[in-house]
Write a structure and sequence with these properties.
single chain, 618 residues, alpha/beta, Rossmann fold, 6-stranded parallel sheet, 24 helices, 23 strands, 37% helix, 18% strand, DHS-like_NAD/FAD-binding_dom, TPP_enz
Length: 618
């Protein structure tokens, strides 16, 4: 057997370069590069290996370990899990900073390869700088924090171990069921150790995504339930996008007259103005979709994990005779909510259902009723999104006002991106997706700080699209450093920073639970006598190298968006907004309220909480 002598780090990089993926008949490199912040735990090993191939396998320098991994996660999401990026850090704080991003990838079932440096496998210099010493177990390091946040985890204590571990990690990241973050902890001494690797380990390998098909029995049962239904409703989840099933979904619902509602991850599976589209479902959903969910006798849940926001904490699907078909590639998700599972790739499953249901149609009266509800909701949204008229310069725009302006500025070739705070709820209700990539929400983990870095990652994945990042002042202040990276790398994003001076979403929730405003809006926080400073977000963005401006009105915002679109580098627009208004859709979410309180408002809210909870099945 022919061998080649390399360090473990060199072999790892060489293996990554040899991985390809077939995307619609075109071969692409599976790994698009590596985000890296070097330290003593990875600079001499992996850093040296990456430098050798820097011209053909790019290394991107970022400003924060967590946010560079967010960018890598967003890159994979924008690529529908078909291309991957890696992220490497030093041992200690750098590795610990990966944990939050790993949680984002894990919750959202998105692939990213994490390569944190680790302490010495030989233990000769123990305790090395930044080593966390566990008194009872010398094998535990900072990287063990990544175990519960990883779909695959290994510590490479011998250079030959990557021969089995690397293919296993790639398998997990490409598996539609197990997909998520893979972590290979790399002791810094092992990175530099040489080994005679088999040459065939580095042969070109072209991967093809698995598309499992349903068992015939599951298909027959699902088809039988659909035929027997009078009021079927389909929920489109993120799995529709990841399986490339948007066209199959469209064909399926058009053929059988089935109304559709969307999760955050599923939004855009049908264009907003498709006659079968009722809008978002659940706590953040459209009244039309939630009305249909209450009346449906069958729910076909396609590629969704039925998170509590989608089911209004298990109170939305209230009919006792309701049945749920879980069409999902993961049996873990397919059986949720006592669903009848149809374990299948979304695209394959919808195609097969279309064949076996030939000749059947849902009642036209049901779809017509749903379309009436949708028309009423869309009329309301028209009014909400319209530019405010007759407002003086003292008027503080709402989130909805800003969303309307941004939506009017975009085309179907653009993407709006968001993650946390009040904006995801308003966007789910109000944003009208014109194409399958017009909407990019990280809401599996709802991670504050994802937005700016995620926008950069999305732009790297789809450089032909303008990426509009909508972010509140709270999230922006948590993590904004990759705005400078986006300028440095030339990956332009447009950031709209809505400054409502605090965590307004949680303030509203606090008030809704009977609590007094406390520690959320800056005016209600412990501060010096003069209060919290007014942050000049435009000046801050300019200091990071971006173009920027502050605006006061929606009219000024619309003009600024035109300038931002014309700019050749990242651009931030800051606008002060009202922290209180949100679009009411009369829904309930299970947030536990104190049983005992000195506040009458809390006691009253608890009564309402207990009453609403009576609709839960247990």
């Amino acid at each position: 057997m022919k061998t080649i002598r390399l360090t473990m780090a060199q072999a790892l990089v060489k293996y990554l370069q040899a991985q390809y993926i077939d995307i619609d008949g075109k071969e692409e490199q599976l790994f698009a590069g590596v985000f890296a912040i070097f330290g003593h735990g990875n600079v001499a090993g992996l850093g040296e290996a990456l430098h050798t191939v820097k011209d053909e396998f790019p290394t991107y320098r970022a400003h924060n370990e967590q946010t560079m991994a967010h960018a890598a996660v967003a890159y994979a999401k924008q690529h529908r899990r078909q291309r991957i990026m890696a992220a490497t850090t030093s041992v200690g704080p750098g590795a610990a900073n990966l944990v939050t991003a790993a949680g984002v990838a894990h919750a959202n079932r998105l692939p990213v390869l994490l390569l944190p440096g680790d302490t010495f496998a030989t233990r000769r210099p123990d305790p090395v700088l930044q080593q966390v010493e566990h008194f009872g177990d010398p094998n535990i390091t900072t990287n063990d924090c990544l175990r519960p946040m990883s779909r695959y985890f290994d510590r490479i204590n011998r250079p030959e171990q990557i021969i089995t571990s690397l293919p296993a990690a790639v398998r997990v990241m490409l598996d539609p069921v197990d997909c998520g973050p893979a972590t290979l902890a790399l002791p810094q001494d092992v990175q530099t150790m040489a080994y005679d690797y088999p040459e065939n380990f580095f042969r070109k390998q072209v991967h093809h995504l698995s598309r499992p098909r349903a068992a015939m029995r599951d298909l027959d049962i699902a088809a039988h339930l659909i035929r027997d239904s009078k009021k079927p409703l389909l929920i489109a989840g993120g799995g529709v996008h990841y399986s490339g099933a948007c066209e199959s979904l469209k064909d399926f619902v058009e053929t059988f007259n089935i109304p559709v509602c969307e999760t955050q991850a599923g939004k855009g599976a049908l264009n907003w103005d498709h006659p079968n589209n009722l809008g978002g479902i659940g706590v953040m959903g459209a009244e039309s979709a939630n009305k249909a969910a209450e009346e449906a006798d069958l729910v076909i849940a396609v590629g969704t994990r039925l998170q509590d926001f989608n089911t209004q904490s298990r109170t939305l699907f209230s009919r006792e005779d309701l049945k749920v078909v879980g069409l999902n590639v993961a049996v873990f998700d397919a059986v949720k909510h006592e669903s009848i599972p149809m374990v299948s790739d979304a695209n394959e499953g919808l195609r097969e259902l279309t064949e076996v249901l030939s000749g059947w149609n849902a009642q036209t009266e049901w779809l017509a009723s749903c379309q009436d509800w949708a028309a009423s909701w869309n009329k309301r949204v028209d009014d909400i999104l319209a530019a405010p008229e007759g407002k003086d310069e003292n008027y503080l725009p709402t989130d909805a006002n800003v969303i309307g302006a941004v939506w009017r500025s975009t085309t179907e070739q653009d993407t709006v991106l968001c993650a946390a705070g009040g904006l995801p709820g308003e966007l789910q209700k109000l944003w009208r997706a014109r194409s399958d990539k017009h909407y990019h929400l990280e809401y599996g983990y709802s991670c504050m700080g994802y937005e700016v870095a995620g926008g950069m990652g999305a732009r790297m994945a789809t450089p032909d699209r303008e990426i509009y990042v909508m972010v509140g002042d709270g999230s922006y202040l948590m993590a904004n450093s990759e705005l400078a990276t986006s300028v440095m790398l030339g990956h332009k994003i447009i950031v709209i920073c809505l400054d409502n001076r605090g965590f307004a979403c949680i303030n509203r929730l606090q008030n809704g639970c009977g609590g007094e405003s406390f520690n959320n809006l800056l005016q209600d926080c412990y501060t010096v006598e003069g209060g919290a400073p007014k942050v000049d977000f435009a000046a801050h963005a300019k200091s990071l190298g971006a173009d920027s401006e502050q605006v006061q009105t929606i009219e000024q915002l619309e003009a600024a968006l035109e300038r931002a679109r014309a700019s050749d580098k990242s651009y931030l627009i800051a606008i002060d907004t009202d922290p209180m208004p949100s679009t009411d859709n009369h829904t309930w979410w299970d947030v536990a309220i104190a049983e005992v309180s000195e506040r009458a408002e809390v006691r009253e809210a608890r009564k309402g909480y207990e009453k609403a909870g009576e609709k839960q099945p247990y």
